[in-house]
Amino acid sequence: MNKDYSSDGLLAFLREATVAGRIAPALARSRRAAADALFAKLTESEAADLRQLDVDALKSRFLDTQGDGLRGEVVELYAQRLHGALDDYFRFVEAPESFVSKAARPQAASPRNKQSPKSTEERALETVRLSTPRQRPDVIPVPLKQGRVVYLHGIPADLTPREASKISRVVQALASEAKDDD
Asked: Are residues 18 and 96 in the same domain?
């Protein structure tokens, strides 16, 4: 039997493992979102065989081309989720009948009210991760100046120059006559 280690195989695994009850739906969704984002920077050979993928190099390529689009902490979280997805996927490909996700934990073993208290650093990192706005692919950030970003939403892919001009005139009409700080 030919084993599939491709990026398409991983994405299919994340869908099917959820349906089969092998991975929690929320975990599969978060891993798929991370994979979708990072896989945009895969080379053809990496996409064909994920075993040769260096996630840290992929993360660096993603950060280099992303610019100010996503914070480094978010990309780091994506990389962690991709590592988990790859680990589960490779184990599944090798032994599909006996596969159990490493992320699956018995509910009785660690109830929420009996978890050990988190350190200050862990709480701070969790706050940063949870407060980070999610970047939707249909929202275009336009940085104006330090700390000021405008987000464009609903821009059609086939926008004509005439339509773009019309939109820019509407935006210009909204501008105040205050001094520009550029």
From this structure: yes
